[in-house]
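Quick one before lunch.
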Amino acid sequence: MSFLKEFDSEIYELCEKELERQTNHLEMIASENFTLPAVMEAMGSVFTNKYAEGYPNKRYYGGCENADAVEQLAIDRAKKLFNCEYVNVQPHSGSQANGAVYAALIKAGDKILGMDLSHGGHLTHGSKPSFSGKNYQSFTYGVELDGRINYDRVLDIAKIVQPKIIVCGASAYAREIDFKKFREIADEVGAILFADIAHIAGLVCAGEHMSPFPYADVVTTTTHKTLAGPRGGMIMTNDEDIAKKINSAIFPGLQGGPLVHVIAAKAVGFKHNLSPEWKEYAKQVKKNAKVLAEVLIKRGYNVVSGGTDNHLVLVSFLDKDFSGKDADEALGNAGITVNKNTVPGETRSPFVTSGIRIGSPALTSRGMKEAEFELIANKIADVLDDINNTQLQAKIKEELVALAQKFVIYNQPTY
Ligand SMILES: *Cc1c(COP(=O)(O)O)cnc(C)c1O
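Model of the pyridoxal-5'-phosphate complex:
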């Protein structure tokens, strides 16, 4: 800690400020979490110095014996965690992992079918500004006005499109994803089924969400969202042929040297995920999100799909005279960080939107439970009920900073 302070006071001070921001604000962005100091220590370890292009025991550099052991441990723990046969822990991010899946399994110009970005899908599921929408012919399915995927509709679309790959998984979908139904759809049209569990992986590995195995041919995830590990990606499969293609697509296809320090941190994160406490954490994440949805509904807010099965709640303001952007800003002033989000039946632009997405993983990692979530949900409703009242926002912020400070993130920061 003092090395940084002594050598680079500017970055040190920004780390201090960021810790203060994370401590004093209520972090409710559904894709964020707080990782363990042990994970951060591994990320800051000597492995950042090591080149290890290739895979364990098949490297292009010497001196990889410890890197081999680290990567093998990460792979073995991930296999146990998700109950699958083959894992690649090298993707630098979730998007890189998804890029490798397409590169491994289809050709440029082939058809992919994924969930519409504005309905909760991810950029890398075929959205036009992303490589996935530029390099492939992309088609979309979405949710109905009730906020849910209608699997019969997805099948109808798949029959017309005849995609090579069907992508399932989302960034802003509060309901359980039925991988078995997606498997049936993929089988009917002869498509590869690709499940992206970036958001829900921490619930899946705890048995708190249906697993994509044995249904999906290939599965990707991030390691930093509900999994609460270091920032990064991962690819899993039970098919040896797919596994070989994925490995070549990651290296030498898309990436160079793996981030061995991050792979070490992924292994530490998986140890956390394999512990008995993790199951309790995942259960609590869901309980807390449920309380959030219930209170907001009771307070007259339109929760998309009428509730949640996972770690997030999507709130629609289509029936209100303010936007998602207005709500995001007002809640920010009150010390609550969320993000604006498009909702089913959206009438505003993606920069304004008519909704917000609120998640429970980060505050649950700080130790908050139903009582705190009930209180916070009521504060959210108080802010939204009187959205232009900046005095009220300032007052609520004071109360929430006091609450936040009772739930320590790091006893000993490791930056
Ligand atoms: C977050 C997310 C990703 C991308 O992860 P990055 O690490 O930000 O590249 C991919 N897919 C889904 C569904 C996500 O939610």
